[in-house]
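Private note to self, pasted from the team thread so I don't lose it. Backbone tokens:
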């Protein structure tokens, strides 16, 4: 039995298990024959055969056809008609069926019709649905079933393993938007932890209210009890039938069949609701509720004729009610000029227009004017769109301390707001089935606010502390002073809220004060109004003006210190200290006094000029101690430790409120010593600590340090004191002006920008070992002030999307224009496998090979701009037609719709390579990109690239921008032209002189890194000498320090780029290539520069254990490519060595992650073992998927010869070897790993495995610091 295919993420989220493979869908269309079949017992009938699957899919079927049946998914809508009877005869060609289906549905919104050209009768979809696989399928299922499949089903054809293309059905991008809206609404309605879903709370306004299961929203402002009207609220269909009594005399319809009065009860209902009615109309009649006003007039006589449209009736009804000056929800938000509102849009939907046609103008007008209408929103929520607002009815019908009105059921009568804060015994609270919380209070309890003696006698004996705490919680609002009642309205801060680090990154502005110039404290004075403004900013309150206090000396009536007044006094002190804080004194004391950068640059690298994390923490803590009163800091040691953790975060790590509050207690804050509820104290402390981190610590870092990552520091964050960073960048800007950039005046910049669609780019600098590297942000929009006002320009990369799509099309159509360019390891794998099979020529031995590796010196910055534009004129020679598509991406946590452009016939390669599943939906819209426009944008981008550096404009005079989406393609076309005109002719000339063939060498170039392999030493020497001379016409020279050879040469020093680990390897673009066997290993030397911990991004919030488990698997992905495990390239020993090395690096990252995570949480050894075993299983699955999905020539498919037991043994061995070096932390885990290893090592006696675990063969990895 074949394994059931997993439904893609996008389709599963939208259709659940109703989406099936094409084979399963076709079999469901054709039930087994129970009577005599039309086929007359022919063997080619899918109904009569016993093995129906084998009829569709046979042993000799081509692989494309198998892929179509097994990986193409189909969704059958519920309203689709039944499929026709199976008939295996096919009278039409597949292309004729597709064309007829499209032409029959051209007026519909079916995806199959998008982009269809009536003249040529062709489109992308037509080409996709008329392949040889579809033609073969039609021969087996017949014309009728094929026509039904194309017309009524949604079809998603596979592009590759994780991407599909929708070719039929309603476009799912609209469904995706609806899905996202529903998801966001559900997210906003999630119940609190510990509360059942059916008792979930609606919003923050009604947190203390009893909300029934069916609640009504009156314009989103008030949620009230759904049983206010009892049985007077009926569905819309029931209300309409009650307003139209059956005809007792001759009706005006004169016997017309379309009359709702003259029919019987069943016929009258079928007149309103018919079988072919849309689902939205059915939902309106059945789920919309109406309450007829008692004082409204009698409904008019039924007349089915309609003289006005629905929108005209609604507009006239609203304007008539406005003239009468009566209160009605239908008038809320009505714009007299635009004659529109939210309610009007809701009442003019297609469902209401259809209802108008069936009930007539008069009845519709009566319904809108004299009835209360509640249309369904989602689930069991309704939206009032007509009638008197029910929140007004609620307030008038339920005054405090009175009996419920007759319209409200007694058991749903709510206690008043005063008695809700009383300590209520558990026996007096019960939950009803309709999710209403009903509170029974005795009259004495409601008046006095205390428990009766009988209730107290039933309580169990409690300790003194427990009684004291319960007594504190019994204080009602009236027991506290009016100013302290503000804490009751304080909103709770979710502990998962993140501290926003973005404001402190890459900020150059300097200020003389300790905080940024625009900080709120700098605009306040240390008085009552200033403290009140700061109070509102901290606690997120809009109006904080309590009534006159009933106490004095800052003590409440219950002898408790007044938190409100005490805090205001401390805030005044904070403002005064912040204004007078001695910034320079603290900075000089805690940050090492830097010498001038000119003196130190000769002795220190740029990273050494940065401040250590300890220095930054010391400075921040000194400022906090200086400006924040001690009463508001709590435990100094814990708070400082949390601040240190925040400063030590890596660039992409997040810091939640839970981490800010870690181990902080309310009892350690003297200001919270009063008799307040624990929840109030905790909420206060969360708000206060969140404000300290987000509004004090982050602005302090922003104002005093330039914070950035480094070129070689991976994700590590570096803090530079502002003056040091200014000196460092000033020298770099001077050198850049001399080499690459020209200073441009503002007027010249405006003249350049005004003639094009995109603007300029802002530049920031990233430190490297020597100097800094400029990074231009070409993905953000820009604004520039002109005489007529400020004008905004689109991002550079956004405007260049059309040009990028055109260049990708040229890359696919004419790859020879790019020379030997490769863009991924997949292409390297393909070329290397082809070369090996060619030079081996059927033999198992490889002849001696000569390898040369070279790197272009400053490839992007040295490109000759004029030469590049000349090269691109031969690349872009025609106009191009671009089609717009949507890429719908789904993963376990994310779901998004991304619009982008692609070319008509070759749009598939433009799908972005994402690990998540995605579906491509063609929009049927196209634009024409002319050759002149493309060349104009390219010239503006290359020749007139404007950069904003330190508030001045610069124009790049040599090279191309590195942050552009075109950079890699332009570089590849440029050097590809250089190869085709200079390098390849030279190599062919040398080969002819030596009587060699072109098949005796292989040349690959990954952007600017060359790899040359040949069986001729003279050819390799010729290649080397030609590169050494350089290509002056292209301003291209090699970096002589990065030449790599596997043979002796007098011109190049022998030690250049050569490594020795038992065999000689050459490094090239992240690979180790064996100089003798051309076996391939991964290059791990990139991890030798710093600590391995700097490469991680640890997640401390939202279930860190599950995220840790996922990250360990992610660490295996980069070094799990088919080129490392293909038996056609590597020997069994090297394949197992690659597996072992991948696990070694993963185990080292495992240890680093555990160390970082231990500061916030820890797990037992069994959980760690489960994570490790899961990574072993994942590695084996990933290897098989990567190898078998690798696309190489059919005769050269990769081969994987590794057992699952070998992978598990190699992984366990790697974990044991790494963790043994840290055994003090992992004693129990190591014991479990060794037991697991013993259970799997019984049959492990292979020499290949022994070679793999030999530490000498992994000497580079053991030099990594972890």
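Design output:
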């Amino acid at each position: 039995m074949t394994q059931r295919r997993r439904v893609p993420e996008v389709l599963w989220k939208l259709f659940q298990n109703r989406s099936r493979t094409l084979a399963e869908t076709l079999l469901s269309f054709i039930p087994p024959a129970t009577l005599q079949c039309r086929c007359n017992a022919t063997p080619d009938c899918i109904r009569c055969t016993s093995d129906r699957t084998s009829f569709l899919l046979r042993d000799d079927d081509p692989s494309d056809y198998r892929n179509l049946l097994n990986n193409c998914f189909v969704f059958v809508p519920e309203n689709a008609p039944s499929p026709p009877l199976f008939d295996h005869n096919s009278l039409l060609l597949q292309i004729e069926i597709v064309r007829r289906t499209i032409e029959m549905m051209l007026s519909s919104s079916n995806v199959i019709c998008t982009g269809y050209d009536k003249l040529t009768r062709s489109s992308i979809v037509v080409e996709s649905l008329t392949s040889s696989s579809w033609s073969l399928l039609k021969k087996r299922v017949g014309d009728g079933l094929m026509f039904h499949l194309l017309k009524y089903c949604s079809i998603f054809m596979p592009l590759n393993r994780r991407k599909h293309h929708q070719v039929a059905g309603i476009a799912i991008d609209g469904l995706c938007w609806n899905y996202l809206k529903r998801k966001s609404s559900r997210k906003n309605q999630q119940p609190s932890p510990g509360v059942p879903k059916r008792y979930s709370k609606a919003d923050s306004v009604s947190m203390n209210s009893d909300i029934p299961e069916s609640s009504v929203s009156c314009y989103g402002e008030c949620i009230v009890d759904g049983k206010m009207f009892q049985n007077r609220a009926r569905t819309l269909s029931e209300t309409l039938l009650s307003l139209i009594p059956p005809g007792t005399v001759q009706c005006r319809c004169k016997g017309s069949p379309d009359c709702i009065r003259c029919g019987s009860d069943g016929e009258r209902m079928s007149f309103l609701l018919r079988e072919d009615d849309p689902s939205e109309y059915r939902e309106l009649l059945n789920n919309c509720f109406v309450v007829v006003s008692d004082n409204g007039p009698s409904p008019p006589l039924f007349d089915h004729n309609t003289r006005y449209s629905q929108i005209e009736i609604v507009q006239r009804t609203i304007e008539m009610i406005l003239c009468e000056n009566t209160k009605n929800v239908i008038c809320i938000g009505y714009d007299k000029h635009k004659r529109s509102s939210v309610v009007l849009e809701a009442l003019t939907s297609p469902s209401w227009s259809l209802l108008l046609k069936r009930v007539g103008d008069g009845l519709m007008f009566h319904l809108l004017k004299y009835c209360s209408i509640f249309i369904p929103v989602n689930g069991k929520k309704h939206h009032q769109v007509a009638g008197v607002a029910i929140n007004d009815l609620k307030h008038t019908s339920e005054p405090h301390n009175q009996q419920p009105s007759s319209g409200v059921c007694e058991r749903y009568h709510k206690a008043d707001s005063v008695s809700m804060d009383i300590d209520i015994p558990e026996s007096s609270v019960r939950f009803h089935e309709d999710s209403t919380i009903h509170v029974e209070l005795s009259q004495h309890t409601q008046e006095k606010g205390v428990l009766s003696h009988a209730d107290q006698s039933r309580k169990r004996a409690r300790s003194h502390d427990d009684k004291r705490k319960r007594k504190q919680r019994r204080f009602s609002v009236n027991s506290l002073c009016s100013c302290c009642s503000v804490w009751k309205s304080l909103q709770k801060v979710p502990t998962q809220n993140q501290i926003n680090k973005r404001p402190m990154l890459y900020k150059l502005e300097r200020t003389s004060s300790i905080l940024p110039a625009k900080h709120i404290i700098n605009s306040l004075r240390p008085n009552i109004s200033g403290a009140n403004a700061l109070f509102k900013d901290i606690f997120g309150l809009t109006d904080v003006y309590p009534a006159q206090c009933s106490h004095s000396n800052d003590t409440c009536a219950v002898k408790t210190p007044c938190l409100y007044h005490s805090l205001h006094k401390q805030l005044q002190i904070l403002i005064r200290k912040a204004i007078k804080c001695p910034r320079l004194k603290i900075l000089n004391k805690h940050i090492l006094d830097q010498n001038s950068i000119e003196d130190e640059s000769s002795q220190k690298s740029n990273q050494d000029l940065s401040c250590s994390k300890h220095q930054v923490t010391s400075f921040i803590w000194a400022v906090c101690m200086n400006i924040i009163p001690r009463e508001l800091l709590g435990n100094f040691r814990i708070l400082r430790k949390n601040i240190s953790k925040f400063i030590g975060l890596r660039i992409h790590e997040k810091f939640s409120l839970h981490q800010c509050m870690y181990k902080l207690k309310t009892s350690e804050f003297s200001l919270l010593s009063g008799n307040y509820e624990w929840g109030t104290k905790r909420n206060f402390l969360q708000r206060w600590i969140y404000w300290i981190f987000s509004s004090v610590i982050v602005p302090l870092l922003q104002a005093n340090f330039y914070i950035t990552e480094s070129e070689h520091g991976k994700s590590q964050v570096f803090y530079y004191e502002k003056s040091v960073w200014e000196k460092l960048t000033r020298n770099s800007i001077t050198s850049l002006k001399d080499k690459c950039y020209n200073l441009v005046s503002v007027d010249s910049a405006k003249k350049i920008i005004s003639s094009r669609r995109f603007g300029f780019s802002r530049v920031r600098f990233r430190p490297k070992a020597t100097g800094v590297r400029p990074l231009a942000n070409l993905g953000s929009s820009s604004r520039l002030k002109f005489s007529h006002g400020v004008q905004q320009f689109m991002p550079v990369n956004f405007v260049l999307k059309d040009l990028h799509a055109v260049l990708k099309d040229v890359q696919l159509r004419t790859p020879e224009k790019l020379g030997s360019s490769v863009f991924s390891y997949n292409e390297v794998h393909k070329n290397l496998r082809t070369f090996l099979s060619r030079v081996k020529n059927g033999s198992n031995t490889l002849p001696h090979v000569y390898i040369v590796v070279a790197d272009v010196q400053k490839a992007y910055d040295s490109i000759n701009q004029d030469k590049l534009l000349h090269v691109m004129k031969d690349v872009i020679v025609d106009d191009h037609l671009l089609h717009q598509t949507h890429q719908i991406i789904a993963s376990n946590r994310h779901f998004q719709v991304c619009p982008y452009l692609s070319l008509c016939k070759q749009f598939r390669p433009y799908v972005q390579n994402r690990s998540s599943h995605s579906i491509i939906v063609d929009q049927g819209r196209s634009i024409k990109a002319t050759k002149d426009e493309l060349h104009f944008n390219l010239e503006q981008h290359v020749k007139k690239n404007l950069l904003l550096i330190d508030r001045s404009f610069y124009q790049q005079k040599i090279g191309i921008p590195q942050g552009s989406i075109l950079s890699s393609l332009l570089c590849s076309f440029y050097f590809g032209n250089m190869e085709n005109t200079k390098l390849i002719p030279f190599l062919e000339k040398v080969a002819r002189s030596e009587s060699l063939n072109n098949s005796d060498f292989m040349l690959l170039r990954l952007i600017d890194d060359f790899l040359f392999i040949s069986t001729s030493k003279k050819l390799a020497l010729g290649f080397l000498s030609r590169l050494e001379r350089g290509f002056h016409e292209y301003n291209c020279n090699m970096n002589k320090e990065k030449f790599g050879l596997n043979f002796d040469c007098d011109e190049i020093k022998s030690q250049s780029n050569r490594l020795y680990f038992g065999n000689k390897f050459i490094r090239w673009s992240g690979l180790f290539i064996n100089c003798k066997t051309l076996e391939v290993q991964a290059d791990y030397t990139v991890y030798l520069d710093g600590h391995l911990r700097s490469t991680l991004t640890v997640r401390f919030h939202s279930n860190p254990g599950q995220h840790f488990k996922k990250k360990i698997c992610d660490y295996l992905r980069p070094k799990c490519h088919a080129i490392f495990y293909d038996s056609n390239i590597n020997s069994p020993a090297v394949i197992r060595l690659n597996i072992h090395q991948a696990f070694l690096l993963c185990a080292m990252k495992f240890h680093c992650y555990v160390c970082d995570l231990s500061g916030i949480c820890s797990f037992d050894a069994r959980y760690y073992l489960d994570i490790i075993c899961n990574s072993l299983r994942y590695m084996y699955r990933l290897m098989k998927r990567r190898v078998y999905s690798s696309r190489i020539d059919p005769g050269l498919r990769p081969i994987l010869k590794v057992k699952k037991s070998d992978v598990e043994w190699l992984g366990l061995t790697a974990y044991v070897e790494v963790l043994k070096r840290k055994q003090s932390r992992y004693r129990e885990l190591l014991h479990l790993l060794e037991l697991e290893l013993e259970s799997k090592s019984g049959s492990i006696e292979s020499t290949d495995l022994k070679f793999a675990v030999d530490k000498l063969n992994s000497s580079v990895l053991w030099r990594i610091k972890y």
